[in-house]
Specification:
It is built from 14 helices and 8 strands. The chain is of the alpha/beta class. The chain has one domain: Histone deacetylase domain (Arginase, Chain A, 3-Layer(aba) Sandwich). The longest helix has 19 residues. The structure holds zinc ion (ZN).
Length: 380
Amino acid sequence: MIYKNEVTQMNATIQPVLIGSEIYRQSSFGIDHPLSIPRVSTVLDMIKALGWCGPGEYRTAPCAKPKLLQQFHSHSYISALQSIELSQKVNAVERKTYNIGTLSNPVFSEMFQRPATSVGSSILAAELVAGGGCAYALGGGLHHGMATYANGFCFLNDLVFAIRRLRSLGIKRISYVDLDAHHCDGVEAAFENDDNLLIVSTHEEVRWPFTGQLKGNVLDRWVNIPLPKACNDDEFLSVVNKIVLPVIQRFSPEALIIQGGADALRDDPLSRLCLSNTALWQTFSNLLELSDRVILTGGGGYNPWAVARLWTGFWAIMSGRQVPCELDASASSILRDLHWARKSEPDESVFHYFHDLPNKGIIRPEIQDLSEHLKRVHFL
Ligand SMILES: [Zn+2]
């Protein structure tokens, strides 16, 4: 199965850019944390091994400076993040005030620099696409980050900065689409009163952070699509085709930001959605056609093999390459070298094929009802 990039005429003339950093290679949230696994570094290694990064296609993300971060995050929170990174100690008041030093948001070596690099990635992406084109901020996608505290593995919120940077460059009308299994509570909270931002989120219902419920839908502002557990490819694509694509098309955004979290995949341990990577690639291909400026970021994703294949495939599609059926020996050996505390070995097919087997299935009545309800609410 092959997906071709069908970007608009304007995008086709501007070279897509992949944005990464080596800070993610050695950095870990701790051995027991879901983010103990390598993700960005594996994708960069796969892309290099496959020869999918030519001259001018890669940029190193800068680390955003404290002064810049304080344009959204509070001064005291940024100062605390820096000092705790330095001391590697958190006191009881800081733990309570900033939600740091918890199981989700632990103290670790790069706890300021790593998320600040994610912010730098997404700001750079905004600057690169302002005149048209696409950029992939691999380390971005910290959609739970709040202005004054850490939340759900996210110490900062790079997406807020990407939206603000686009605005400062004259891009007014923006759509933010979140494909992660968790709702984008941090992004929603940061733009409560913004008529020129359409936020669309597909996520698992009854799943932390428990926001993004059906009642939270607001015409041309918030499109929240809570999906039932075991959601299959056909169900997901039906919702994408009936709701996600038409609502964005009607909004006609000058720029589209896509959070491409990998935790809605079937093999992810942190959600009960059951998508194959082919469903997410198909969705991404279709989204690419909806704006002349597209930013893709990372996000959740806690199975190292599933993340690596999905995100490497995203870059192939963005950069106009084909996602091959089979992995070549060099890419396969990168995947074989990965280790994951939760599982000793994945299914052997992971080392041979780029594509998961499509997870086809019937479209359950609850999904049909969900689509009908959303069509009414959003006048589709
Ligand atoms: Zn997630």
